[in-house]
Amino acid sequence: MAVRAPALCWVDENRTTTFMLMFDRLRDDILAVRSRDPAARSVLEIILCYPGIHALFLHRLAKRLWQMQFCTMARFVSHVARVFTGIEIHPGATIGQRVFIDHGMGVVIGETAVVGDDCTIYQGVTLGGTSLARGFKRHPTLGRGVIIGAGAQILGNFTVGDAAKIGSNAVVVKEVPAGATAVGNPARVLLREDQQRREETAAKLGFSAYGLSPDDNDPLSLALHGLIDHAAAQERRINELTEALQRVGIEVAAETQMVDDPRRLDRLVD
């Protein structure tokens, strides 16, 4: 008895630590929902009515069983979570802290997927694999603070960088750099610098391009974005020529306003 008692105490301590950690993570999940969802009115409402919270809590239990090699039981817990929440997370997936699965119906997260801290995932998202080989990483890795819009499909073993954004219904099959945005099918990656330049040019024109339709599958959206990019390139070149003329003592007239009403562009795509 004197030999076995320490082992029992060690097991009890580990079990207590595990449950305390699970409830600490639950508290962080609740705080994440309150900070990101303006519809959340109280902690009780979040605990009772948010399926993302339920799915994450049950996933951590399934993950623990999976790590203990109780694979069938882990898959059963995952199955129960899917029945009650509509969210399917494989027990082998790695989910970070303060992850917010909003609405969540139809979300599927594969076995070797990794979701970083502070990510936000909306309904209908799939983190899927494109390979049938066993024993290899087949699913994507999300960095910290990634936002994935509703219906997006991220397929394959690659990384979505920190603070990246995936547009609704995008199909992403290649790496997305940190801070970039991926939209369309197949997804086109827009770097942060390109987005900022385009938004600044659109603002100067008085045209709210991004408030209308950023979908790169839309021919009208593609044409408008191309025109804005062209205008930005022209403006940059004109500024360079103006500075060169001023350096040699040639005065350049002040910038003239557009004759056409820029709001007409907004009406064209209403």
Explain what this protein looks like in three dimensions:
Strands 3-6-9-12-14-15 form a six-stranded mixed β-sheet. A five-stranded parallel β-sheet has the order 1-4-7-10-13. Strands 2-5-8-11 form a four-stranded parallel β-sheet, with no helix packed on it. With 270 residues, it is an alpha/beta fold. The chain has two domains: 5-190, Hexapeptide repeat proteins (UDP N-Acetylglucosamine Acyltransferase, domain 1, 3 Solenoid); 195-268. A hairpin with a 4-residue loop joins strand 14 and strand 15. Helix 3 runs antiparallel to helix 4 (71-85) and helix 5 (192-205) packs across helix 6. Residues 1-12 and 207-215 have low confidence and may be disordered. It contains seven helices and 15 strands.
Work out the radius of gyration. Answer: 25 Å
Proportion of beta-strand residues: 5-15%
Number of individual domains: 2
Q: How large is the count of helical segments? A: 7
Query: What's the architecture of the largest domain, going by CATH?
Result: 3 Solenoid
Describe the largest sheet.
6 strands, mixed
Q: CATH fold name of the largest domain, please?
A: UDP N-Acetylglucosamine Acyltransferase, domain 1
Low-confidence stretches: 1-12, 207-215
Strand order of the largest sheet: 3-6-9-12-14-15
Which CATH class of the largest domain? Mainly Beta
Task: Quickly give the structural class.
Answer: alpha/beta
Name the helicity range.
40-55%
Number of strands: 15
